[in-house]
Amino acid sequence: MTPRLFELMLKAAGTTVVISVASIGIGLLIGILVCAARLSPRPWLRWPAGLFVSFFRGVPLLVQLLLIYNLLPAIGLTVPSVVAALIGLSLCTAAYQAENLRGGFTSVPRGLLEAADMVGLSPWQQFRRIRAPIALRLTVPALVNEAILILKASSLISVVGVIELTRTAQNLAASTYEPLLFYAVAGGLYLAINWLVAAGGSLAERALRRGRLA
Amino acid sequence: MSFDVSVILGALPAILSGLQITLGIWLASTAMGAVLGFVVAALRHFGPQPLALALRLAVEVLRGTPFLVQIFLLYFGGPFIGLSLDPVPAGLLGLSLYAAAYFSEIVRAGFAAVPRGHVEAAQCVGLSQAQIVRRILVPEMTMLVLPQAVNMAVILLKETAVLSIIAVPEATATISAIGSQQYAFVEALFLLAVIYWGLVEACGRAGQALECRLSKFRFA
Amino acid sequence: MTLPSSAIAIRGLCKSYGKAEVLHDIDLEIARGATTCLIGPSGSGKSTLLRCIAFLEEATRGTILINGQPLGFEEQPDGKRVRVPAHQIRRVRSGIGMVFQQFNLWPHMTALGNVTEALVTVNGLSRAEAEARGMAQLRRVGLEARARHYPSELSGGQQQRVAIARALALEPKILLFDEPTASLDPELTGEVLNVMRDLGADGMTMVVVTHEIGFAATVGRRIVFLDHGRVLLNGTPGELFAAPRHPRLTQFLETYLDRGAAMLLKPA
């Protein structure tokens, strides 16, 4: 492989990272809203949120991406494929992140909130000062895990024509007749990125260790 | 836009054959993945050091790279090292290896979670090493890993859709092909989504029921 | 305003979960400035009673007056029982501190952070002022040196002492303890009991649910023995533990020989 082609691959890896990070971020925001709705006492909020989570976790991402990519033009919205891909990835990860957050919130021991009650914290103060910080700490490992899953899952957006790492490898493999080489390099790049994410995750967990639940 | 699923349903036999292939590949690769994963976990625990290291590396690579890249490497790269496979066998092999990597980690965590004291108790009443594995470790581990194993099976079911990209004639490939022939692509994809959704929900429910039935064997 | 003679007055308190009634018609006066110990077999309702006093559980019937003020429910002249407004609940409850069996320290805050949280968030003190008061409370429980440690870095006994300091920081009139040493290793219970003993000597009003019969007999001014959700006995340690004893109490004490009950059962 010439340095020039390797540079192309690296650039494509950058695209993969940018799209993944953006989806994780947007997905987190949507996930927080969905989680709030899931934990709401109002059934008309809980129900649709549950349906959202069930659907996006129950349908293969590839089918979701194809659906969004084809549905948007069908209802008169023409968007670049990268936008469709971003919407698909974000909605999918939002469903998983909403469940992770819900797990975090429901694992906050009740006693910690009773203690807050006894010293006079209002429900909102309890949420802001006790529940949310503890729940977010509990969610960090799941968030890192989700980031790795999305990085890998982002390979599927090559199918709707986004020129990211997998698609670039595919193009170069076809034009050079060297599929072994280019898919192996692509795999190596995914591995390297994931190792970095995992390392960052364990750093973050170590930083939070002092404040962990006993 | 018009929305009419009936044009798709006109091709029911083709849909059913696609579904059949999806379910067949799913069940076969889950079973093979589970067995292979168990063997890998056992070899990593009991096997010689170099083999354990090599297996660990293989598991890390399979878990750290996208399934799509793995399947491309196998299907398009395979012929260059004398491994020319048709789409279905390639998909089956690829998905089984992918599954094995994840199952081996699940099994490994399961073995590690069996309390040391249970093994010591078995040694004290005179069970041999093999008996301990067969009578104590494996049953306890099975209880412990059941939720993750069911979860993994669901992930594999969804992963079968990726095989449509290398032209395995499974549900996604068949139904979207019908959709484009009939100029009803969106309808076809909706139908497809609903089918997967139903299968995944059913699988999840079945897993919960199984867990419930086996819950009396759980230790606190 | 003169305070009523009892710190806590409980009238006709009943609590049931579905069909199961855990507390039957409890009438109890808790004296000011003294330590009252609630003892009894597991399932006798002593923790539930304490949690009702803290309004962590809502009683099904009856009323509780804290320093003469209704907590949670109020009886109107016509005998109807109505809920008091939330702000009043919070005000009355601010006179009560609670120490839990599981400590319930907030894991993401240091010892000092736990103690100062309500001072800053609820009482609106400046951080400096809150920390000065927090340090004073930590000194009182002997943990000044651990102020910057997180709960996960403290022993169980230290965590429980921080929890006591957290309750003390708001200067409550009444301290409630729910089995404060039940989840501690035996060698760590002493340090917690000593802090409680000192608080009792300082004249704090304390209600302690405990299995430490020795502690109850020596520090408790009054002992309340609950059995099957009723107050079976209520008196000074001298009255209760001296022969002739109630047969249920003797039966109970015999199961707690290792918790300091042995000395009470010795023939005089």
Q: Can you tell me about this structure?
A:
The complex is a heterotrimer of chains A (214), B (220) and C (268). By secondary structure, chain A is mostly helical. Chain A has helices at 3-38, 43-58, 61-74, 81-106, 110-118, 123-153, 165-176, 179-208. Chain A has a single domain, classed as MetI-like (MetI-like fold, Orthogonal Bundle), CATH 1.10.3720. The longest helix of chain A has 36 residues, at 3-38. The mean pLDDT of chain A is 90. Chain B is mainly α and 220 residues long. Helices cover 79% and strands 0% of the residues of chain B. In chain B, helix 2 runs antiparallel to helix 3 (49-64). The model of chain B has no long low-confidence stretch (mean pLDDT 88). Chain C has 268 residues and is an alpha/beta fold. Chain C has ten helices and twelve strands. Chain C has a six-stranded mixed beta sheet, sandwiched between helices. Chain C has a four-stranded antiparallel beta sheet with strand order 2-1-4-5, with helices on one face. Chains in contact: A-B, A-C. Chain A binds chain B through residues 54-55, 57-64, 66-67, 70-71, 74-75, 148, 152-156, 158-159, 166, 169-170, 173, 179-180, 183-184, 186-187, 190-191, 194-195, and chain B through 1, 60-61, 64-70, 72-73, 76-77, 80-81, 158-162, 164-165, 172, 176, 185-186, 189-190, 192-193, 196-197, 200-201.
Summary tags:
heterotrimer; A: 214 residues; mainly alpha; MetI-like fold; C: 268 residues; alpha/beta; six-stranded mixed sheet; 35% helix; amino-acid transport (chain A); cell membrane (chain A)
In summary, what is this structure?
The complex is a heterotrimer of chains A (214), B (220) and C (268). Chain A is an all-alpha fold and 214 residues long. In chain A, 81% of the residues lie in helices and 0% in strands.
How far the N terminus sits from the C terminus of chain A, by CA atoms, comes to 52 Å
Please give the largest β-sheet of chain B. none
Number of helices of chain B: 9
The H/E string of chain B reads: HHHHHHHHH
CATH superfamily of chain B, by name, is: MetI-like
Whole-number count of domains of chain B: 1
Instruction: State the CATH topology of chain B.
Output: MetI-like fold
Question: Could you name the CATH class of chain A?
Answer: Mainly Alpha
**At CATH's second level, what is the architecture of chain B?**
Orthogonal Bundle
Pfam families (chain B): BPD_transp_1
Organism (chain B): Methylobacterium aquaticum
Protein name (chain B): Amino acid ABC transporter
Subcellular location (chain B): Cell inner membrane; Cell membrane
